[in-house]
């Protein structure tokens, strides 16, 4: 799920909420975190978790990474994009439609018919290095199931999204475009795993979303993200999400 180096109401622009204990923040935000996946009536299993997402705005819009939903569905087998709501082995399964995407910033917004408790988005002000954050999602969710896990860390740096390649043959068209139009992402001193793609990164005192997890640095193979995690993850600043959501109102 990771790429390896894998009508929104105005209430989402509300001001800061009051500080509260971290335990209270986590308990509250879990209601807004959902799983993103595919329902295949002919498959085994029928439901597959592909990443994490979270509700915003009117509660019917779900944010996740573009790379979580970019693979086309198999219409012949009647696959459907779905959102998993709740916890445990039998979550509620809601059919979802992609309403807008931004591949350059690895963002996508889906829509469901049922209202889910939405997150508040933090202001667009860039956070300083050392700021404490947390993120909640479904690491290795395809194996462990829909049990939201929270990880805590801090912002280590703001760094360009482009990661140098060992040689020119490894440069993709997408990477070349990013080199021409680089933007900064947050490098986090926190460990994310496959399944955490799309997880909300939030302020530990207010619960406001400040970024979206989108990839993890691995030192060896893709599989080493599980056996030997680097402890370095990356997240897209909330300013890019705010801009994308504003386009829904245009």
From TrEMBL:
Read off the PANTHER family from this record: PEPTIDASE S12, PROTEASE DO-LIKE 8, CHLOROPLASTIC
Mind telling me which SUPFAM superfamilies this protein's record contains? Trypsin-like serine proteases (SSF50494)
Query: Which residues fall in a coiled-coil region?
Result: none
Specify whether Signal is a keyword of the entry.
Answer: yes
Alphabetical list of Pfam families matching this protein: Trypsin_2
Q: Which family does it belong to?
A: Belongs to the peptidase S1C family.
Its domain of life reads: Bacteria
Q: Please list which residues make up the signal peptide.
A: 1-19
Q: Which UniProt keywords apply?
A: Hydrolase, Protease, Signal
What organism does the UniProt record list as the source?
Lacimicrobium alkaliphilum
Q: Supply the name of the protein.
A: Peptidase S1
Q: Which InterPro entries match?
A: Chloro_Bact_Ser_Proteases, Peptidase_S1_PA, Peptidase_S1_PA_chymotrypsin
């Amino acid at each position: 799920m990771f790429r390896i180096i894998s009508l929104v109401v105005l209430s989402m622009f509300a001001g800061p909420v009051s500080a509260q204990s971290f335990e209270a923040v986590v308990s509250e935000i879990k209601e807004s975190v959902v799983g993103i996946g595919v329902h295949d009536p002919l498959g085994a299993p029928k439901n597959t978790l592909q990443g994490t997402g979270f509700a915003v705005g009117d509660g019917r819009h779900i944010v996740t990474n573009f790379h979580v939903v970019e693979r086309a569905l198999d219409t012949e087998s009647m696959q459907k994009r779905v959102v998993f709501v709740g916890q445990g082995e039998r979550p509620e399964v809601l059919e979802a439609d992609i309403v807008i995407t931004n591949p350059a910033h690895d963002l996508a917004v889906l829509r469901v018919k049922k209202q889910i408790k939405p997150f508040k988005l933090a202001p667009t002000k860039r956070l300083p290095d050392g700021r404490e954050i947390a993120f909640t999602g479904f690491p290795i969710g395809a194996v462990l199931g829909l049990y939201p896990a929270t990880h805590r860390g801090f912002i280590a740096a703001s760094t360009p999204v482009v990661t140098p390649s060992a040689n020119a043959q490894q440069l993709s068209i997408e990477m070349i475009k990013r080199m021409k139009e680089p933007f900064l992402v947050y490098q986090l001193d926190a460990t994310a795993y496959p399944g955490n793609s799309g997880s909300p990164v939030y302020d530990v005192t207010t619960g406001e979303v400040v970024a979206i997890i989108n990839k993890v640095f691995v030192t060896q193979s893709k599989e080493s993200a599980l056996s030997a995690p680097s402890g370095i993850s990356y997240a897209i600043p909330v300013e890019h999400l705010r801009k994308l959501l504003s386009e829904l109102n245009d």
